[in-house]
Amino acid sequence: MILDAARAAASRLFSPEFRSVFLKTLGLTLLTLVALWLGLESLLEWLAWPWLQTLLPGLPSWAGWLGGIIAGIVLAVGLALLIAPVTAIVAGLFLDDIAEVVERTDYPNDPPGRPVPALHSLVLAIKFFGVVVFGNIVALLLLLVPGINIAAFFIVNGYLLGREFFEFAAMRFRPEPEAKALRRKYAGTVFLAGLVIALFLTVPLLNLLTPLFAAAMMVHLHKAVSAREPV
């Protein structure tokens, strides 16, 4: 069921039907990541570098170059950790567009889902943004613990991404309490599907399409679950 959903979602990523939402999703994700990069860079220049010069006066000229390299590494790591929450925000804005395309093209004989109210969708996305940021901070701390560092990344993001995208897909057809109850009932399946999304998230460049892939995959997964648990 999970592999079928992932395969169906991947096959649609570059299809003509997805082109419009693909461009909107990719564009907004890139703009958000660029804005975050510039914001983090400015924060480092404003806070970290003056503090370091005060702490260690008389730094040699090459220290600036070394500091720039270290700052670049810190920014790259920080941006990598922010990809997951950024995709959550983007998905909250475009999930209905993605779901409508999947439902119309792959399930033309089924009743279409109801769009999640825009304000409710935004509130849920912001709430999840905070949860994902917290989860990835925990995962970052666990990176210092040998043996569980990589596993921590996949477990945290697999659980959080699976929960978020499945509930969004389910709420197009079910009230929110029923969608949450369904997710809890199929928690193992949803978590494994979230691991697939987390794996997709680790592929450079492709990870910018995570909202598109994850939303489409969870629409297919919810359809499969609904065959066992009718609305």
UniProtKB/TrEMBL annotation:
It is a multi-pass membrane protein. Pfam families: EI24. The keyword Transmembrane helix applies. The chain crosses the membrane at residues 21-40, 62-95, 116-142, 148-166, 186-209. It is found in: Membrane. It comes from the Bacteria. InterPro entries: CysZ/EI24. Its main location: membrane. Keywords: Membrane, Transmembrane, Transmembrane helix. This is Sulfate transporter family protein. The lineage of its organism: Bacteria, Pseudomonadati, Pseudomonadota, Alphaproteobacteria, Hyphomicrobiales.
